[in-house]
Amino acid sequence: xxxxxxxxxxxxxxxxxxxxxxxxxxxxxxxxxxxxxxxxxxxxxxxxxxxxxxxxxxxxxxxxxxxxxxxxxxxxxxxxxxxxxxxxxxxxxxxxxxxxxxxxxxxxxxxxxxxxxxxxxxxxxxxxxxxxxxxxxxxxxxxxxxxxxxxxxxxxxxxxxxxxxxxxxxxxxxxxxxxxxxxxxxxxxxxxxxxxxxxxxxxxxxxxxxxxxxxxxxxxxxxxxxxxxxxxxxxxxxxxxxxxxxxxxxxxxxxxxxxxxxxxxxxxxxxxxxxxxxxxxxxxxxxxxxxxxxxxxxxxxxxxxxxxxxxxxxxxxxxxxxxxxxxxxxxxxxxxxxxxxxxxxxxxxxxxxxxxxxxxxxxxxxxxxxxxxxxxxxxxxxxxxxxxxxxxxxxxxxxxxxxxxxxxxxxxxxxxxxxxxxxxxxxxxxxxxxxxxxxxxxxxxxxxxxxxxxxxxxxxxxxxxxxxxxxxxx
Length: 474
Known about the structure:
Number of strands: 0
Radius of gyration: 24 Å
Largest sheet: none
Shape: globular
Order of helices and strands: HHHHHHHHHHHHHHHHH
Strand content: under 5%
Number of helices: 17
Structural class: mainly alpha
């Protein structure tokens, strides 16, 4: 029996099942689609201005403050403790949301929710530390699919309970508390990883595999493959004497890892193609998260929850489905993204801007819902393309590093937007005017990449014309 338990515990199936259960229950939060009606309703008696300008901005600030240290600590502590921290953060969040009152208490809710959001990196990173590379593709599919399924189930369940069973928002939050508590319990049963990507590499030879099979990007800017340079840890050679000294001194080793991370970042962003894709990622993700953070406030201003039927859950379910469908469709579209990718970024960013302008100019809640669906579908399509374009020429370690840094830059931009546009200590604009700003912001993004795509296409045409002229002369 002990042998059988040991075999199951150390196989890829057991940790995959447990981490998927953790992901399902931590994402299955049916009350999230109805957070603004709950805060502005009789349960909390907060004004829309307090929710928008004083409470919601705290999430952005806490997320920014915690993201980078949590990213490093997650790897150093080998993921499992951070998954437990995420569970504790979610539980505190919903306990406060259920039983605390006042603006300060709700600001604490946003702080702990920011902590839980910052720890989400551990969910996807954990599984790669306990399974072999042969199973990476399969377990990634499972982990991502289960969270999408959980988000859809949560939105549909929340809508059905509110619309058909007349369940109160308070009891909806109680269901969410039970779900995140189950996620916390699941995290206890996860095996403790013996390695991590950066601080606890089991074998130096596996640390930074050279992307020998990566697809080298082509285009006017030259190759975008972020190749391992001679200063990096060699995929063939063993540890150098300096690295052995580092392993003997934990502090020196940690410092060496940080130096190597900064060197890897510099090498990756030296590729102009990767730099432009990362620029779009950071800019668009900042705007996307800002819209998601305040969309319920806009809906409530168009159709107040105290006097109108609320369909937030149904809209979120449809948006999740459309986002998944567009992301999946990318895999079946045969396009040279190296040539046409930035044109796609410009066009679909312009569509995002149009969706936001629609939500600003209309007072019809159904038009707002439609604009949100189009906005989220376009973003999910583009972020899938950007993820592939960045990941295709990088090792997993360097992709994880760029993913974390791009999100950090996105959060920094989002914080600037929040301080200037939303926070009561800044402009403190009303929610409708905020969406006018967000629409203008995406118009700016679209302009950058449309202009650049036109420049690339004209450069290629001129080069082809020049080559054709030279061949005629000969």
